[in-house]
Hints:
Layout: H1 2-15, E1 21-23, H2 24-31, H3 35-47, E2 52-54, E3 57-59, H4 62-74, H5 79-83, H6 88-101, E4 105-114, E5 117-127, E6 130-137, H7 146-165, H8 170-173, E7 180-189, E8 197-198, E9 201-205, H9 209-215, E10 226-229
Parallel strand pairs: 6-7, 7-9
Antiparallel strand pairs: 1-3, 2-3, 4-5, 5-6, 7-10, 8-9
Helix pairs in contact: 1-2, 1-4, 2-3
Amino acid sequence: MENIKREILLAILKETAALNHVKIDDIAKSAHTPRTLVRDFIMEFSEGGLLKIHNETIAVNGAQRLKIALKAAELGSDIERIARFLTWSEFERFSRISFEENGFIVKMNFRFVWLSKRWEIDILGVKRPIVISADCKHWQRKWSGTASLRAVEMQVERTKALAEASRRLAGKIGIKGWRYAYFVPIVLSLFPSQHKFHERTPIVPILSLNDFLQNVIAHLDDINSFYISYA
């Protein structure tokens, strides 16, 4: 039955990529599965919080789509196939919401120049005394191994440059008037990587971002950061 569940979950992702709702009949057709069986599994998914159902229509929000993707992966679906049904914009949008719900001011695609070089950081999350510098990685099969470690190293380099430039960029970053700041590099991934850390820099699965943000201040001594004093 797991293979049937996988196909139904993938069909939900596919059919809700453009709109957040879809008829059960359309899921059955897309999954090539009898409607009665599809409805039984959809009721199970609804009870598990993966979706909502009203009459014969399924509705999902952004967070639920990500949970559906992870559930499909847990059941053995090919991750690259799953990733085709998830857009970059919903990945970034969910990240932004997580930051904002935890009290961070968010700056997307933050660009700056330092030491005659142009830099760009996908997401900055600013909440005194922390500036989280996040690089967003969607998914490629090769990414979860050594490529993820290289991504971390590059993000550390970007964050170090930002920290060094921060006195000049205080207004743009949103830290004007701060006495000091911790610049924390992280890599956000759609799916869990083989590595949770590299050189004390976190690789954070997107659905773990909320928990990470809630606890980051308590773990500053344990993770990589760049401390800058403005006194």
